[in-house]
Amino acid sequence: MKATATRRAGKSARTAFPLNPLAAGCAVLLSALAGQAFAQASGSEAQTAVAPNTPTAAATSEVIATPAPSVSTVTVTGIRQGIEAAISVKRNSNSIVEAISAEDIGKLPDSSVAESIARLPGVTAQRSRGSGRASEISVRGLSPSFNGTLLNGREMASTGNARNPEFDLFPSELMGGVVIYKTPDASVIGQGLAATIDLKTVQPLDFGKRVIAVNYKKSRLGVRTAEEGDGDRVSLSYIDQFANRTIGLAVGLTSYDETGGEQRKYDAWGGSIAELPYNGQNVRLPLGFTADTETGYHNRDGAFASLQWRPNRNFRSTVDLFYSAGETGFKRSGLEGAVGANTSGLYDPAGVLQNVVVQNGVAASGTLTNYKAVVRNHIEAAKDDLKTVGWKNELRVGDWDTSADITWSKATKLSSRYETTAGLPGNAANLDTISWTGFNGGNFTDIAWRTGLNYADPNVAQLTDVNGWSGTADNPLAQAGYLAQPYIDDKLKAIRLNAKRDVEWGPVSAIQFGYNYTDREKTRSGEEGRLMIAGGDRFGAVAMPGASANTAGTTGIPIATWNPLGSLGSVYELAPKVNADILTKMWDVKETVQTAYVMGNLNGELFGLEYRGNVGTQFVHTKQMGGGYNSGNCTGETADTCPVLRAAGEHDYWDVLPSLNLSFDLKNDQLLRMGVAQVLSRPTLDDLRGGLGFSVNTGVANPFLSGGGGNPMLEPFKAKSFDLSYEKYFGKKGYVSVAGFYKKLDSFILRTPSEYDFAPWVTSTTPLPTTGPYAGSTIGVLNRPENGEGGSIRGYELAVNIPLELVSSWLDGFGILANHSDTRSKIDLPALGFGNVQVPAQSIPLPGLSRKVSNLRLYYEKNGFQIAAAARKRSDFLGQSPDFSDTLQYTFVKGETIVDFQVSYEIQSGFAKGLSVFAQANNWNNAPYQEYTVSSDSVTRRVEYGRTYQFGANYKF
Fold this sequence. Notes:
- The chain contains 5 helices and 50 strands.
């Protein structure tokens, strides 16, 4: 697209660091620690409590000392071993962390990384609206975008608008463990305001011998739905050491292909109600509905490799490779149409109510004439690809442990939204009726619908432009379908340098310096267009090729269905479409982030208690540029009638992020931890885009200019955090913990409308208001993300993780993992900044916040048998899902409880030793996914995904 003009926003920068109160507080506390340390006997020498091969040590560049025989994040057998390895990570860390570890090579405790993470204290998952998979992670009630996600301590590119990659990209078979940092330290790059999630693959030289593991799973998906699906998963892991253990190689391969069960869905258009006249009064009835029957598919190939070279104890070089490519798609067949709205296009005339039974002003049952049903056959598909390469070299020079780490990551995603419509042509004379029963004003999903015509008959449901959704009354354009193909390309490069040495500076036992440079460039492009029946006739209609019958979602209404792939050229012609909404979704963002940090490890005694920890500060400089297109001059929907202006803005700023972590030894395997830090989360990359679109809002009494777009001047979400945690350990077998946290939000980002002068983007052809007080005015309202101030989040977490043999020897082999968190927010966000939310405009909950989250896992493991039952529960929250135009919208999601089971047996001796067979059942209780807009009693969207059964075998030798 050729830009006709370019404008660049002014540059803003700060050249000095302001005094940070949190940094000053850390300095005061450090002074107190120093006073206590210098008062101790000079012979007391503190040593770090972090083993050099723990994930915590890896993230903070702890250096090679001597070869380690094993790694604490990956174990070789059993539920119990995986739990003990995770407990070791948690206990030895200087920060407050949660961890999971593989129960065996290539076998996390759940079928996906996200599901395993969601079982940790204060952590929960949001299921994908389409597939029902756990796809996003929320920590301590904050939105998933508030997390930083790393792979082996490195940042990655992503395939969505957010910064962090979706967890679907990481097959669980390739992961050795996960560490979640709830309190940061200065050496952790890519931090998030809520948490930093570090995914870890295995390192071959941490193993004492060759390991080969093969895993196969057969799945049945959508059990207890209309029609079941199936799938196959296979994985291979190979770990070996060569040349007298100076060279190590680890390789993991996985592939799966799954077709989901048939899902019946119902959407009540946000639970909206309309009023129509009947017998001299207005009665309330549903605005309309969409009912779909959906089948999805998901396939993915993944691989990782790690090559290590350690010729001597002073040098180690590690190359990590990760690759993931997959395709996800959904075929939707259904029916939709306006009821109370009475009309939804140029070809949809108003109807008349008949035979209505009125109860308390509600049309409990009745019939509407002139109904124009739209039979939908849509395909949504996406192909994604993630490649990440990291090369880390560690060298000991004298007393200094140094390292250099470089990263390259690239992610792409090509989506296709192929929509087709069928029904009665726009010029049809004899229209349909729609009847309903059982409506009480709020039970949208319980209504029984019935149409007068049979839409399973291809002679009735013809491919055509049913309602006239494109163009204007004066210039209607044919649109019998739609095709959109957005494309995301994200590239990230980084280099990190680190140096550390032991010192004896009072409480400071080691000092560490580092520098990280990250360069990122992300673009979103693509094309969209109207599908027309070949020949261009706007009333053209043809029969569906290869039509078959199905039902529309949960309504039971019969419909005709077909597969539109390959129909472009034979059935349809494509007319490219250009308008303000489409153009504002095309953007590019460039960002460079430079981070210098200094951190000291602490060891000493305070008030008679031994402690360890760290104190440090990051100095972060960010430079960002957001580009896009301004499109307020559209008089039509073609490139000729919608000229655009290229827009770009730049901004750079500094952040100072001090942090302090202390762990006090209370004796008897008890720890008291404290963490204080300044934390941030950067804006999503699409919020930084430079373009905006605007037009005349004619839907009000006094028309005015209204628009929306991004904001390249945005700065991050920022908060001061305080954490306190008590932990009681039972050797390496288990622990109980109580934790509390408080986050004072200094700034947040909210999409909000404000007065804006569009004059810089107005030309002689720009449509302006022609009536009312704003006639001819360029002053209007722009809805875009802005920085706000104020608010807080606080909560507590309880956790128990123990083998029940500690209670009684009769319970040997049994164990329990249970945790509960309660999180509250004192932040009020105006509802008008969010789509698909109907609550009073003064406030809504913080996005992603479930006040209560609970997890329970019971297990038995003995003599080769492993049996486990698990449940995770979360209360209602404000989530986000893509709408029909691929734009993320916030929507309330009803709380849910999901129950899983698994059982396995591993042969203990003989020629088949190392072979295990297993069976798993996920979503055993078939928990539905439910959305609402006002009250949880008025569900507007309900989806049941059914159970998933998995059967398979794992062989390790």
